[in-house]
Every structure is written in C-alpha cells, then in structure tokens.
C-alpha cells in the first residue's frame, strides 16, 4: 500500500502577530510567509498591522517599513525600486508581481497575503532560490552568435528587423511568468519555462544572429519546449506586459516550417 505524507516542516503554521503602533489611524494587515530552511521550525504566517500613513504606496514600501520599524528579521530581495531589476518579484494576494510596482491599495480587503514565488525552493522568507531558473536561461545561450567576421564598426540592422525584437528584449528575468506556469511546476527540471523560451525566440529572430539552425536543434525536445500548453498564466502576470506564450508558439511554428 502506498503511504503518502507531507515532507518534514511542510505544514505552514500560524506565526506571530505584530500590532500597529498606538495612535495609528489607517492600518492594513499583511500576512507574510516566514521560513528558514536551515532552522528546525515549520513555515509560518506572521501578521503585521501596518500604519499606512507611515509608509509609501507600494508593497515594497510596506516590507521596508516592516523591516525597519517592526521586524528586522524579515528577509526579501530588492534593488532598483523602479520595476527594472526584477529582484522583488513575489506572490502578492495570490498573484506573481513586483513588490516595487504593485500598490498596496491594489490588493482588495483588509488583509494581504505575501509569499515567495511559487514552486521555487526558499532561501529564507520571501527569497526564492533561482539557481535553476538562471541555469535554464543560460542554456539557451543568450548572446549573438555569428560566423561572419566581425565588422569594424557594428553589426547593422534595419529598423524593420529591430522592431521584431520589441516585446521580447524588455524581459527583466523576474521569474514571475515561469513560476506561475503549471507546466513548469510539474516539469521544472526539464521544461525551460516561459522566460527562457521568450529569450530563445528573441535570438532566433535577431537578423544579426547566424546560429538559427543550432538554436532550433537545441529546442526540439519533448520537454524543453513542448510542455507549454498555452495556459497563458505567463502573459497575465508579466509586469512588463509581455507575452511569452506567443513567443513560444512562434518557436514551435519555426520548427514546423523548417521541416515543411
């Protein structure tokens, strides 16, 4: 008989409650996932009643306020605060997004759940381990590959060919799309995921690149590419408004066309 059991320390427990400071007039409760895999305790949900008049309008402002004034042990990533670096990607109110561009007013209700990106191992609290994600991105060899001798000035490209890259190069590798994909949840060790495949297409259609055949050969695999079932979660959560599912469909089309 098969015996199914949850892994050790996998049950999320109720954590500590941090009340708002005395005299706070406008407050909102943020339920934050806390976990240290190097410790012995189970994951937990800590709740923080935040004085909204004491912090900025974005969820990242709230997290910085919590760390600076309430709980210095809270761990999360952040850098640019402008939606460019992708460091502060996390799940806010059930949706993958960037904490620096997502306003706390956008989250309905008086309580907002904040957790790390789904599927990924947790380094600590809201910090996911993106080792696999970056390795998959590196595997598509995201750089210009040419056999023609390098020109003395630059590789020239027509305005029309340059426009083909719009909607692709803007990806900031925040991993919101990849970690929202059910196919990636089940096949993350084999399926490259929306972000890596979007970048693969970006190099496939670059008029300056001369390794199209080799790139397509590397992608023609039952798992690397074809685990995409066009669920469209990736396009719905992308903070830059990109459409990885469309890029993946174009890669599949290129593979069919070269056979025909």
Q: Could you provide a short overview of the structure?
A:
The protein has 8 helices and 8 strands, in the order E-E-E-H-E-E-E-E-E-H-H-H-H-H-H-H. With 260 residues, the chain is an alpha/beta fold.
What does this structure look like?
With 260 residues, this protein is an alpha/beta fold. Helices cover 27% and strands 15% of the residues. The chain contains 8 helices and 8 strands; from the N terminus they run βββαβββββααααααα. The protein has helices at 59-69, 131-139, 159-163, 182-187, 194-204, 212-219, 233-237, 244-259; strands at residues 13-18, 27-34, 44-51, 89-92, 95-98, 111-115, 122-124, 127-128. The strands form 2 sheets. Strands 1-3-2-6-4-5 form a 6-stranded mixed beta sheet, covered by helices on one side. A hairpin with a 2-residue loop joins strand 4 (89-92) and strand 5 (95-98). Helix 5 (194-204) packs across helix 8 (244-259). The longest helix has 16 residues, at 244-259. It starts with 12 loop residues before the first strand and ends with a helix. The model has no long low-confidence stretch (mean pLDDT 94).
* Tally of helical segments: 8
Which percent bin holds the helix content? 25-40%
Which descriptor suits the 3D outline? elongated
Number of strands: 8
Structural classification: alpha/beta
Distance between the termini: 50 Å
What fraction strand? 15-25%
- Could you give the order of the helices and strands? EEEHEEEEEHHHHHHH
| Rg, nearest Å | 21 Å
């Amino acid at each position: 008989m098969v015996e199914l059991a949850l892994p050790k320390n996998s049950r999320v427990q109720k954590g500590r409650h941090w009340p708002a400071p005395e005299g706070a007039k406008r407050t909102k409760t943020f339920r934050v996932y806390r976990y240290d895999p190097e410790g012995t305790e189970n994951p937990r949900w800590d709740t923080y009643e935040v004085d909204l008049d004491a912090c900025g309008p974005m969820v990242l402002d709230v997290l910085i306020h919590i760390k600076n004034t309430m709980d210095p042990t809270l761990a999360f990533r952040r850098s640019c605060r402008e939606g460019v670096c992708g460091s502060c990607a996390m799940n806010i109110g059930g949706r993958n997004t960037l904490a620096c561009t997502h306003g706390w007013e956008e989250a309905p209700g008086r309580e907002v759940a904040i957790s790390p990106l789904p599927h990924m191992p947790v380094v600590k609290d809201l910090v996911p381990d993106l080792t696999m994600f970056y390795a998959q991105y590196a595997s598509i060899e995201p750089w210009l590959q040419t056999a023609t001798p390098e020109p003395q000035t630059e590789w020239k490209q027509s305005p029309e060919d340059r426009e083909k890259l719009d909607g692709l190069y803007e990806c900031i590798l925040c991993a919101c799309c990849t970690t929202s994909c059910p196919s990636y949840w089940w096949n993350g060790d084999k399926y490259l995921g929306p972000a890596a495949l979007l970048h693969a297409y970006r190099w496939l259609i670059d008029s300056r690149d001369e390794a199209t055949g080799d790139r397509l050969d590397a992608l023609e695999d039952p798992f690397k590419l074809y685990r995409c079932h066009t669920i469209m979660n990736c396009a719905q959560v992308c903070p830059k408004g990109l459409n990885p599912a469309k890029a993946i469909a174009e890669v599949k089309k290129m593979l069919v066309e070269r056979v025909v």
